[in-house]
């Protein structure tokens, strides 16, 4: 560490520690976080001389490091678990699988077909507005240009199309039972 970094460390060490302690609310984690912050400061030593507000710069490094650690821990905890010693099942069998089951895929496809059939029963203006917006994912401005109407008209048609589609689906017993929760 150069003399300049030593001065920065001597001057701001306590401040950074207290900030880390305030963020983590844990003495051991605060010390780990503080160490990461100072490692980054040493890594970017060439910038120290160019920084106008050193305390603000150090605070930003500290806050960003804390956020990065938090995000990393959240991501890790989502997929990792501590396996108890008495457990006979491999840990990977306990990790939730985000993929849909075959039954869920079939059910989703069936619902999609029912909704698509009901959309096809709508009047042409409403059907096209829904398809442009939800299927083709055009913006309201793009739909207005395509249909040669104002944006307000597109919004009205979209609202009415959704209302009409909802009514049609609720009136049909097969569709209503597939779409509504049991």
Describe the secondary structure blueprint for this structure.
Layout: H1 3-24, H2 27-43, H3 45-48, H4 54-79, H5 102-121, H6 124-135, H7 140-147, H8 151-171, H9 173-179
Helix pairs in contact: 1-2, 1-4, 2-4, 6-8, 7-8
Organism: Kurthia sibirica
GO molecular function: DNA binding; sigma factor activity
InterPro entries: RNA_pol_sigma-70-like, RNA_pol_sigma-70_dom, RNA_pol_sigma70_r2, RNA_pol_sigma70_r4_t2, RNA_pol_sigma_r2, RNA_pol_sigma_r3/r4-like, WH-like_DNA-bd_sf
What would you say about this model in short?
Helices cover 75% and strands 0% of the residues. With 182 residues, it is mainly α. Residues 9-75 form the RNA polymerase sigma-70 region domain.
Descriptive terms for the model:
DNA binding; mainly alpha; 75% helix; 0% strand; transcription; 9 helices; sigma factor activity; single chain; Arc Repressor Mutant, subunit A
Helical content (DSSP H or I, runs of 4+): over 70%
- CATH architecture designation of the largest domain: Orthogonal Bundle
Element-level helix/strand string: HHHHHHHHH
Question: Main beta sheet: strand number and arrangement?
Answer: none
Q: How would you characterize this protein structure?
A:
The protein is mainly α. The chain has 2 domains: 80 residues, RNA polymerase sigma factor, region 2, helix turn helix motif (Rna Polymerase Sigma Factor, Chain: A, Orthogonal Bundle), CATH 1.10.1740; 78 residues, Arc Repressor Mutant, subunit A (Orthogonal Bundle), CATH 1.10.10. It has 9 helices and no strands. The radius of gyration is 29 Å and the shape is elongated. It comes from Kurthia sibirica. This is RNA polymerase sigma factor.
């Amino acid at each position: 560490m150069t003399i300049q970094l030593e001065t920065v460390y001597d001057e701001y060490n306590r401040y950074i520690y207290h900030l880390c302690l305030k963020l983590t609310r844990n003495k051991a984690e605060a010390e780990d976080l503080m160490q990461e912050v100072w490692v980054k400061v040493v890594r970017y030593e060439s910038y120290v001389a160019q920084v106008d507000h050193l305390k603000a710069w150090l605070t930003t490094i500290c806050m960003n490091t804390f956020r990065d650690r938090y995000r990393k821990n959240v991501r890790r905890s989502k997929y990792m678990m501590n396996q108890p010693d008495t457990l006979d099942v491999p840990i990977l069998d306990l990790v939730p699988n985000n993929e849909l089951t075959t039954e869920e895929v079939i059910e989703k496809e069936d619902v999609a077909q029912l909704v698509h059939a009901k959309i096809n029963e709508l009047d042409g203006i409403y059907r096209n507005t829904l398809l442009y917006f939800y299927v083709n994912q055009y913006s309201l401005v793009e739909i207005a240009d395509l249909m040669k109407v104002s944006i307000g008209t597109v919004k009205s048609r979209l609202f009415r199309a959704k209302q009409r589609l909802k009514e049609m689906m609720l009136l049909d017993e097969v569709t209503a039972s597939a779409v509504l929760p049991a």
